[in-house]
Design a protein that fits this description.
21 strands; nine-stranded mixed beta sheet; 34% helix; six-stranded antiparallel beta sheet
């Protein structure tokens, strides 16, 4: 099982900086425009460490975004903008947000130091494979700065007592820091409590550590960051082996996964030819008025059928076939069925073609429709993967197809950092 421990965090002093101005999304969802916008919010915005800008006169290893990241951290610590905790602690985080479907939710999690171990050990479970490029980048940054910034987001399987203890503390104690930020879908509110391992919060920390000692952790987001921490620990046996994680209960109703839709530019078949081929394979094809109608129909069919929205020039339809027993959790996923039975079998978009960029992705159905019109292609809308499906794939030791999950909202970077020395 995973080893979960408190740690002496490095965090912004809310009396010195405006916390709302210095937080940022995880590095891997920040595009160039947002990077520039974050740079303009504050000189102490954590993006300058997590995803610094490259400059024309950079000299690798001498003057580059990694050395500048180290310099920023040193300056922030020197001026008091960032301070080290005086004792080891867990950090309770309440994240209130508005999901795209409407309403409001609050996700409760706890930042902790977890001992990284190979996936084969079985205490921490994954649901996707990683690429070497992002891991090289993260390792260079970690070597330069000595801190982990963007946390891994993971879900615990067994931990009802930990959940109860954290919820009670959040409901009865004022937070140490608070911020309201602009999120992906409106404002998001962050509250942070420092749970020292001694003193009045010692019992809460002990409850969390002891309870989670009997649970596996399912990584929801941050596989590259986890493997980077493991690589760093292997290269530095003299330092404590730790990875920064935000941990939350697997069965919490606040977890939201958004669908990532597929686009095949310049498709080899038009909609009518595809319909004819798939009819022979047992698929139904129901024309609908627009993508929104398709999404509603797909959601209604989800329990009994694999259902996909098809968008083509002048055509929108719902493609479906009944569910049947699958060989494994991965094989039963909508995204797997779409990939294997439609994209690969009839459009020639196999794994190599996906790796080569033949398939595009978007979470916005309207953007899918525009891309289809611009490229004379085909778009495929999918239902979102569920947390239960993610856990089942992870427990089976399998991996999902690319872009199968998008946990919403992303855990912000900058609430607390983990020094690795």
């Amino acid at each position: 099982m995973a080893e979960v421990r408190p740690f002496r965090g490095l965090r912004y002093d809310p009396d010195v900086v405006d916390l709302a101005a210095v937080l940022a999304p995880p590095y891997d969802v920040i595009d160039e425009a947002q990077q520039t916008e974050l740079y303009g919010r504050a000189m102490q915005n954590v993006v300058r460490v997590e995803l610094g800008q490259d400059l024309p006169d950079d000299v690798p290893g001498v003057r580059d975004r990694y050395t500048r990241a180290r310099g920023h951290l040193e300056a922030w610590r020197r001026t008091g903008a960032m301070v080290s905790e005086d004792r080891a602690a867990l950090y309770l985080h309440a994240h209130a947000f508005h999901p795209p479907g409407g309403g409001s939710l609050e996700r409760l999690g706890v930042f902790a130091a977890v001992t990284p171990e190979p996936w084969e050990a079985g205490g921490v479970l994954r649901h996707e494979h990683t690429l070497s490029g992002p891991k090289r980048d993260r390792l260079q940054l970690l070597e330069a700065t000595g801190v982990q910034g963007s946390p891994v987001f993971a879900l615990w399987e067994e931990g009802d007592r930990a959940t109860a203890a954290l919820r009670h503390h959040a409901a009865t104690t004022p937070p140490a820091a608070e911020a309201v930020t602009d999120g992906e879908n409106g404002h998001e509110r962050h509250r942070l409590w420092v749970l020292g391992e001694d003193g009045p919060t010692a019992a809460v920390v002990a409850q969390v550590v002891q309870t989670l000692a009997g649970s596996r952790l399912v990584v929801a987001d941050g596989h590259h960051r986890y493997e980077t921490a493991l690589a760093y620990a292997t290269a530095h046996p003299e330092a404590p082996a730790r990875v920064l994680m935000l941990l939350a209960p697997l069965d919490d109703q606040s977890h939201v996964i958004l669908a990532t839709h597929r686009i095949v530019p310049r498709a080899s078949l038009d909609a009518e030819a595809l319909r004819t081929r798939l009819a022979a394979a047992g698929y139904g094809w129901d024309p609908v008025a627009d993508p929104r109608t398709a999404l509603r129909r797909m959601a209604a069919l989800r329990e009994r059928a694999h259902a996909f929205g098809v968008i083509a020039p002048g055509t929108t339809a719902v493609l479906q076939r009944g569910r049947r027993p699958a060989a494994s959790p991965r094989a039963g996923l909508d995204v797997t069925v779409l990939q294997e039975e439609v994209l690969t079998a009839h459009l020639g978009v196999d794994a190599d073609a996906v790796a080569g960029g033949r398939l595009r992705f978007s979470r916005d159905p309207a953007a899918v429709a525009h891309a289809v019109a611009d490229t004379d292609g085909l778009g495929f809308l999918v239902n979102p993967t569920t947390v239960a499906e993610v856990a089942a794939v992870a427990r089976a030791g399998e991996s999902m197809p690319q872009k199968s999950t998008y946990f919403f909202p992303k855990v912000p970077t900058g609430l607390v950092l983990l020094p690795v020395d």
